[in-house]
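Good morning C.,

I know you're traveling, so I'll keep this short. The sequence:
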Amino acid sequence: MTSLVLTLTETLRYKGAIGQWSWVLHRITGIGVVFFLTLHVIDTSWAVFYPALYVEAIATYQTPLFTVGEFGLVACVIYHALNGLRIAIIDYKPVWWKYQQRAAMYVLGGTVIILVPVFILMFGHVLKFYQDPDSKVLGLLEVIRAQLPFVAGFAVAIIAALLLSGLYGLVRGTPAATPGAKYVPKGSGIERFWWRFMRMSGILIVPLVFGHLAMMHIIQGVFDITVANGSVVGSTAANVSGTSVEFVANRWGQLVAGVAVWRIYDFALLAMVVIHGFNGLRLVLTDYTSFSPFLKRASIYLCVIAAVILLTLGGLALLSTIDSSAIEIAKHATEALHQ
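The tokens, ready to paste straight into the viewer:
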């Protein structure tokens, strides 16, 4: 962990220019987005597989703690997206790196300009919810209890990655160094591929992510998806039961020329963001575990395990059907929650 400690201490001590702080913010915001992405994909899949748990998850998102987190998430996404575009554009044209400081300032300014109206609109949804006397807000202990399965899941994934890394080391062993041998970086071709992928996928993700944020956090936020007989963004159906499960069912069930457009949209978003996000996390983790081949392998395995699980879980949910029985379960869970 020495290099991670040095990163934190030297970042504060070095007092570098805007480029250094852009690098730090890009990593912090990226990690924040990946963390939320993990929670979001898992709990959204519950709308299909465990409707009662999805009702509880949405109720958790409607608490003050997660409301603050939602605002932070939106800020992270917007900054990370704009700064990612800056990196991709300047990398495409290296001669433009002389403008990187000015571009970094534009990113900060653009982030603030976008966030001001976005936060105002989001706060309107929050205020309306908390002013409603019928709104049910979970207590802090209930929120903590709801996160325990995620903590357990993270722990299992970390243990699995460590075991796989240890097993690989036992089977393959540590290759002995050959005196005088020329060092040739292995996997450089693969890394060049991922370097290009991160920039190309980052550009493609921006309209998908911004569209999702606009629909699910600004036009109709988490506080609006549990309104009885409420509208469903992107759908012509109404959320009659006022459950989050029916909201998802109506949105995914919306057909345009016989095509489930939002399922395709969400699948494209899922695939691009998961692969982009966990490859970015791999780069961060391997930076801080480079001193140990064991931990470096474990970091890579952890990212692969998490990405495969999320892609599989999210993909199965998008391919499944939310039937009337799931909505009934959600209705009973909502009633129990408000007792």
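Safe travels,
E.
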